[in-house]
Structure formats: C-alpha cells, structure tokens
Specification:
Strand content: 35-45%
Strand order of the largest sheet: 3-9-7-4
Order of helices and strands: EEEEEEEEEEEEEEE
Structural class: mainly beta
Radius of gyration: 16 Å
Largest sheet: 4 strands, mixed
Length: about 190
C-alpha cells in the first residue's frame, strides 16, 4: 500500500502544504515530466547531473508489517525535465532515534558506486531492511532520506511519512540496499 511522502529539508517545521498525486504520495515540486522515455540506465548519460531531492517523487511502502524481517520499499522517480543520476544507497535515518545514517546491507549485491541515470519519469528502487529481535526495539512512523553524491556525502534530507493501516514500523537493527532499476525482494 502506498504511503504518504512529504519531502522537506531537514530542520524545517513539520507540516506545510504539499501537492498530492493519485498514488497517495506528496511532493514538494510541482514540476512535471514532458520528455518521453522514463527508463533508468546504469552508467552516466551525457548531460545528466546528480538528482536533487526537490525534483524527485519519493515514496515508501511498508511490506510484511508486523512480521520479523519486514521492509520499507523506497521508490525515487525523476519528476524533473532532464536526466539525473543516483548512486550508492540512500542515506536513511529511522524515526527520531538514530542520529546516524543506517549502514549498507552486507547481503546486498556489489556495484553501489555506479551511477543509475534516470530520464524524466525514470524510477530507481532501494529497500530498508528492518529486523526486530526481542523486546528492546524502536518504533516510528517516519524516516529521513538523503541522496548521496558521487563523493559519498549526503545531500539535503527529506522526511518520509508512512500512513495507512499499519503506518508504524519497529526495529532493533536495520540496513539499506543500493539503488537499483528493479524492485528488490519481488515487491
């Protein structure tokens, strides 16, 4: 089930107006894609620059809620009018608990240093793996996401809020997968 996403730069007040699309996600930018295509490619396309969060539609779907080993599917769609690229894995901070970004999953495929170029309308996927072992766990209804640059540094942070039947997720440990052109875990 799609969840609401409200991108906002870190440090700003919660709330504010956002524009909703039919899928239930919100976006900060009202730009639309006018170019055809929408295909994502590995490697760098001539003229492509790093994707900016305010030109991306970020969505999250909570899968296997309430089960051990549930996941958050993260989708990033280029809503700008020019190709852009993502690399590595998103920098994710869960709820208000973690002050540092989650680590990269040791079970992920290699190749996270490659650029995935997203044409207008193109989509890349990542996932947050949530592990809930025992009773000393954290719970949240939101997480913060930042795109990483080629140098590994994080860009601006955007909050992603989960809504729906089970908007809350729990974890003791968590990690993140690389961006990819295909959905992980047969979502």
């Amino acid at each position: 089930m799609p969840r609401r996403v409200r991108p906002r730069p870190a440090g700003t007040a919660r709330g504010g107006a956002a524009q909703a699309d039919n899928g239930g996600a919100t976006k900060e930018s009202a730009r639309s894609s006018t170019a055809s295509g929408g295909v994502a490619h590995h490697g760098t396309t001539a003229g492509a620059r790093q994707c900016r969060g305010d030109e991306m539609l970020l969505t999250a779907v909570h899968r296997f809620a309430g089960q051990q080993g549930d996941h958050l599917l993260v989708t990033a769609t280029n809503k700008g009018t020019k190709p852009c690229w993502v690399t590595s894995y998103p920098s994710v901070k869960l709820g208000d608990v973690n002050s540092t970004a989650l680590p990269h999953s040791t079970k992920d495929n290699p190749g996270g240093g490659k650029h995935i170029t997203l044409r207008p309308g193109g989509t890349a996927y990542s996932a947050v793996n949530l592990f809930d072992h025992g009773s000393k766990h954290h719970t949240a209804k939101s997480f913060a996401l930042a795109l990483r640059g080629a140098n590994g540094h994080d860009g601006p942070t955007y909050s992603v809020y989960l809504k729906g039947e089970k908007p809350q997720f729990s974890w003791n440990e968590a990690d993140v997968l690389n961006w990819n052109t295909k959905k992980p875990y047969d979502f």
